[in-house]
Structures are given as C-alpha cells and as structure tokens.
Amino acid sequence: MVELAVKEGDSVKQGQVVATIGDEKLALQMKSLDAQISGLADQVAQAQNDLTRAEDLFSRGTVPKTTLDQARTAFNVASNALKARTAERSVIQQQVTEGKVLAPASGRVLRVPVTTGTVILPGETVATVAEQNFILRLRVPERHARFLKAGDSVRIDGEELGKELRKSGVQFGTIRLVYPQIEDGRVIADAAVAGLGDYFVGERIRVWVSAGERDSIIVPGAFIVTRFGNDYARVRKDDKSVIDVPVQRGRELPRPDMPDALEILSGLKSGDVLVRP
C-alpha cells in the first residue's frame, strides 16, 4: 500500500481514489525501459540519416542497391525495436494505473482495515463503503410475514432520528422489498424512508409496520376535546343540532393522510358527522 486517501467516516464520490497500491519493481522497470527507449530513439535517428544518405547516393548511381537495402533494413529494425520497448512501457504504465483503488459508489467509508505500507493481495478489502442512499433494514418476527408486502407504509417516530425529525413528529416510508428467506425466525425487508441521515450505519430504531387489519373508527385528533378528564366529540344530529358525545380515546395512529389520527374505542358509530370544536 503506497497511499491511503480515506479514513473511517469520510464521504466519498463514485470513482474517487481511495488508495494507491504500488510495486517498487514496477518503478525500476519503468526506469530501465526509459533508458532503453532513449537509446533506441538515437539509433532510429541515426538509421534515418543513413537511409536518407543511401537514397541520395543511390539516386546518383554512386552506391549499389544492396547498400540502400541494408540501410532501409537497419532503419526498420531500429524502428520496430523502439515500438516494442514503447509498448512494454505502456504495459508497465497500465499496471501502475491499475494500482489505484476507486470508490465503487458514492457514500460513506465505514471501515478501513489496512494502513499505509500494508501488503495487499488480490481480493483483499481496502475499504468498506456504505452506499449514499441509505435504506431501512427491517427484521420482523416471522409470525408477521404474511402481512408484509412491497408498497406497504411504515412509520417511524421523529424522536428516534434526532432533532430535525423530532420537530416534524412522525416520519413515513414505503417497503421496497421483502426477502423470501427467513433468518433466525425473522423476516427481512427493506424500506425507503426520507431523512434517515448519512452518517451512522446500523443504528437501531423503533418502526411501526402493519400486522393485520381490523375495523375501527379513526378520527383526526383535532375533533376530540378533553374537559375535566373526559373526552368529547361534537356530533351533528339529523336536525342539524350539535351535541357533545363522550368517547373513549384509543391509541394514536398517525398516517400520511392524517398525521393526528386517533382511534376511538367507544362513543361513536359509523355514519356520525363530527364538527370541529
């Protein structure tokens, strides 16, 4: 390892040089080939001069054709030798270029198990990069497997993900993929949620997922008022009059279309028209 350009926690872009792996023998071979190329270039220049002189003398009838052929052959041999050494140098140069380890995707460096000067063998890991677009990996008990499917919504409490989401309250996402294999009694699924952050990877948070269906009455929390410890809902009667009906409050069940959704266990029935206090 000649150079290590990143450390744990660094943000990298796709194609960015993460490390450079080199071999000292390659540098020595490059110097040797450079010297040979320089000598062959001089030979080609001398052969070119000899060939030009032989062509001029042959055109005057001063030298036989064999002398011209010898000069032309010497020039071709020198030129081909120079091309061969130049090609060898290109191969070495390509090997040096291939020693640059590039980031396969944009993201954050999670782990760098090597240091500068470490001997690297083919297939060894130089750095582990988490892709930039983080996903939420769900591990749900297998008894809920039949309820999970791609496209379902998931809910995350804002307080689980720090200050920014704590201000916005509840955060929602969508299940993208449910893996068919059950591991250790759990179903694995991937969910896309905006605002997961881009630094910590593997953080555990609480997630709400669908675990079946049942009939219930859900109303916006703003339609329920509490007085002296009792909850009431204002219901419009058939004669257009409005009365306060005592209700029993259930769990808060926020969802994308109703962030303050509240379950009502008793006091209301299907068809009741609520009036906002």
Q: Domains counted in the coordinates: how many?
A: 4
Q: Tell me the structural class.
A: alpha+beta
Helical content class: 25-40%
Number of helices: 3
Order of helices and strands: EEEHHEEEEEHEEEEEEEEE
- Quick check: average pLDDT? 84
The biggest sheet amounts to:
6 strands, antiparallel
Task: Please give the alpha-carbon distance between the first and last residues.
Answer: 71 Å
- Rg is 38 Å
- How would you describe the shape? rod-shaped
Number of strands: 17
Strand content: 25-35%
- Unreliable sequence segments: none
Topology:
Layout lengths: L2 E2 L6 E2 L4 E4 L3 H37 L4 H33 L2 E3 L4 E5 L16 E4 L4 E6 L11 E5 L5 H6 L1 E14 L2 E8 L13 E2 L8 E4 L3 E4 L2 E7 L5 E11 L8 E6 L6 E3 L2
Antiparallel strand pairs: 1-3, 2-5, 3-4, 5-6, 7-10, 8-9, 8-11, 9-10, 12-16, 13-14, 14-15, 14-17, 15-16
What does this entry look like structurally?
There is one protein chain. With about 280 residues, this protein is an alpha+beta fold. The protein folds into four domains: about 1-20 and about 100-125, no CATH class; about 25-100; about 135-210, Beta Barrel (Elongation Factor Tu (Ef-tu), domain 3), CATH 2.40.30; about 215-275, conserved putative lor/sdh protein from methanococcus maripaludis s2 fold (Beta Barrel). The chain has three helices and 17 strands. The strands form four sheets. Strands 12, 13, 14, 15, 16 and 17 form a six-stranded antiparallel beta sheet that branches. It has a five-stranded antiparallel beta sheet with strand order 7-10-9-8-11. Helix 1 (about 25-60) runs antiparallel to helix 2. It is rod-shaped.
